# Entry
Amino acid sequence: MPSDDMPFLRHLRLCNTAVVPGDRFPFSLGDKLAGWIDPAIADRLEQEGLGSRTKGFALANPAELEALGEKLAQEGFYRSHHELFDVMTDLDQPVIARIDRGALPLFGLVAIGVHMNGLVRKSDGLYLWTGRRARNKRLDPGKLDHLVAGGVPAGHSPAEALLKEAAEEASIGPELAAHAKEVGRILYALNRPEGLRRDILYCYDLFLPESFEPVAADGEVESFSLMKLEDVLALVRDTDEFKFNVNLVLIDLFLRHGLIDPHSAEGRALQNGLARGLSPASPGKEHVTVPA
# Structure
């Protein structure tokens, strides 16, 4: 059991470990700051004539970012996902470029994902469908996950990406998935082995019939389980069984359904942290103070 008297806050702390700039270097697309360059590629970008460690880096033509990302993958700086993501300079800014999703952390660029709580209402309360990530997954193999979650590919809205992921990950048809309700979005910035993650998660709830049985269509999930929501809360409170960012979406769910008191000291800190992050991801972001 965690000794912290605010046990859920530890998940927010773990997802907000980035201090910007730290040892990273500013990266601009056009004339706007967009990201933070990892030291692992700084020398290579200097060779490309894109700036320096002392003055920062910039790509005058954002359309050239995709080709730059492909070149770095071919040279072994990261492992390509063969999936392009849209690139924007910050939250709620327009899309100005795209790059392979595997390169986003090296450039410290904003990435967008979708997470869906697959809920079932029974006579004895709420239940949540969870998935166990396949053991061969690149990130967080074997961890518990949402029924549906994934990144938003280039050219897709979050709602479109959710329909795509629902079909691929749990065989949920578009007619049923279209009933998912957007319930909020969560921000965090953390250091990961792959680099700086600056993620925005669009969160959805979908109430499923008791007769529903998920089927993994893409091989990314090894099994599904239907769990009572109170049991899910205990796992999040007491363990690290869930993939790191899934904990944040579940904490938001617990707050909305009163399993965590939103008016308590921890509840207020959680709500602030989920909405704004606990550390600034870019200049101008307000730093949220977290109780020690």
About this structure: The radius of gyration is 19 Å.
